[in-house]
Design goal:
498 residues; mainly alpha; 72% helix
Length: 498
């Protein structure tokens, strides 16, 4: 498999991906030197908006229907080890760049007046996290990919440790970092083994994704590399049983970091980017195991969410369930399943951001995320109740919302590969509807006796919720443009694995 490559200079005239990666990181550093907090926040919000505009320009300028790497940039880095600065996007990664920039703008606007402790540093950490995350989606050198993968830990740890809302926030931060480091070690080993194999095959080391695609990997080595990579990615996703860091992080951390951890699924993206194309025989051979783990995650996450009285924990376990569904689509190794998984991840970014944003609004008003603190919220806060309901419908995949196309395609691909597992996965969809509707009825439509009235959404919050809702219905009713973007790369990947 050899993929064509179109340079950024040829396609758009300037290194747009490098700007998207380093502009927010450098701006975050500069903003910390600004004396006035409000001026620094205004600067960082302006940077986030520019970042979103550039990301949309990237998406609009992308040529759909092809497997080519686009907007590519190459610069030598550690030449003797075959390491270079190589970035680019294809149909698999391009949608996640504007998604990350969109989540960043949402987080900054939501947190604008609600962060009291060092707000300038909080905003800077979020913006740095944005640039690093985009670096993961754009990196085409595996060492560069790993560097960005590890750098995510720095702002994430600080956000959890310094701005967490729970009494165990220090424990949550350490737990998150330790889980990620445990996964990173075998992941790095898998990457090094691929480079060593390339040296054995060609006489030179290379960590470049496009070079590694052309070097055949022996069957036994493929299996070893597959499980090394899969272990690290499963922790990051997170996939059952490596998920326990996520409920802790969501309970103890600020809403901003929660939106990134739940909304931007770099772990599941990593499965599509690394093991499937690089060790395709092993991915195909062990696809049944990953599909089984996906179905277990669907049922486990859904059933635990069904009995949760805490809204944040419910959203954490719902995320575990959705990760399982996306993984089932990925390892159906079909065009429908993979396209569905990518759409599902895009929907998760939008929906999880919306639900966590509204959960944060509830927490600010009631001081709690427990069901017992809510009662009949929809009576005193009808806008909050209405938007929560509409965004929640997308989370359970109601036709007409952004959740339906991805969920439908995943199940279609799964039925073509694993009929029994797909039939069991349908139960997970039913459980998702049960836990959302049950919680909504109890929290928003239940008895409000003894509860203080909850103030409704403010103008800024209403605008943010309305923007999310419009996006949900636009994607749900018109998914074809997104499918056209992913089609070329997905078809090439399926052909390689099969």
């Amino acid at each position: 498999m050899s993929l064509p490559e179109i340079s950024a200079a040829e396609q758009i005239g300037f290194p747009i991906l490098s700007v998207l990666i380093f502009f927010p990181i450098v701006s975050a550093v500069i903003a910390t030197l600004v004396a006035r907090d409000r001026l620094a926040r205004q600067l960082l919000l302006s940077v986030a908006v520019v970042e979103l505009v550039l990301a949309m320009i990237l998406a609009v300028s992308f040529t759909p229907g092809t497997a080519a790497i686009q907007f590519a940039e190459r610069t030598p880095w550690i030449a003797t080890a075959g390491v270079g600065y190589h970035v680019g996007v294809d149909g698999i990664s391009v949608l996640f760049v504007p998604l990350t920039a969109f989540v960043a703008v949402m987080v900054l606007l939501f947190s604008w007046n609600d962060v009291r402790l060092r707000p300038k540093s909080y905003f800077a950490a979020l913006l740095a996290l944005t640039g690093i995350t985009i670096g993961i989606f754009a990196a085409l050198d595996l060492v560069l990919f790993f560097v960005f993968w590890e750098l995510v830990l720095v702002p994430s740890y600080l956000l959890l440790r310094l701005w967490g809302i729970g009494p165990q926030r220090a424990f949550a931060a350490v737990k998150y970092v330790m889980f990620m480091l445990v996964g990173s070690a075998p992941m790095l080993a898998g990457i090094v083994l691929l480079a060593v194999n390339h040296q054995t095959q060609t006489g030179r080391y290379s960590f470049d994704f496009l070079d590694l695609l052309t070097a055949p990997v022996p069957a036994r080595l493929q299996i070893l590399v597959f499980f090394f990579l899969a272990f690290g990615l499963a922790i990051k996703a997170p996939l059952f049983p490596f998920h326990t860091w996520l409920p802790t992080a969501l309970m103890e951390g600020p809403v901003g970091i929660g939106m990134f951890l739940v909304g931007v699924k770099i772990g599941v993206y990593g499965f599509v980017r690394l093991p499937l194309p690089l060790v395709p025989d092993a991915a195909r051979e062990w696809s049944w195991l990953m599909a089984v783990l996906g179905v277990v995650a669907i049922l486990y996450g859904g059933l635990i969410a069904l009995v949760q009285p805490n809204l944040r924990r419910l959203l954490a376990f719902a995320s575990v369930s959705h990760v399982g569904l996306a993984l089932l689509g990925v390892f159906s190794i079909s065009t429908q399943g993979l396209q569905g998984a990518l759409l599902l991840l895009l929907n998760l970014g939008i929906v999880s951001t919306g639900l966590l944003f509204l959960a944060g609004a509830l927490h600010l008003r009631t001081g709690s995320s427990e069901l017992s603190a809510f009662g009949g919220v929809a009576r005193s806060a009808p806008l909050l109740g209405a938007f929560f309901f509409m965004i929640g419908l997308a989370a359970i995949g109601l036709p007409g919302t952004s959740g339906f196309p991805g969920e439908f395609l995943v199940l279609l691909g799964a039925f073509g590969a694993w009929r029994v597992l797909a039939a069991v996965a349908v139960l997970g969809v039913i459980i998702a509807a049960a836990y959302f509707l049950t919680y909504y009825q109890r929290a928003f439509l239940g008895s409000s006796a003894g509860q203080q009235p909850v103030p409704d959404l403010r103008v800024r919050e209403t605008a943010l919720a309305a923007a999310l809702t419009i996006l949900i219905f636009w994607i749900g009713l018109f998914p074809a443009p997104l499918l056209n973007v992913t089609s070329g790369s997905v078809q090439a990947l399926v052909e390689r694995v099969r």
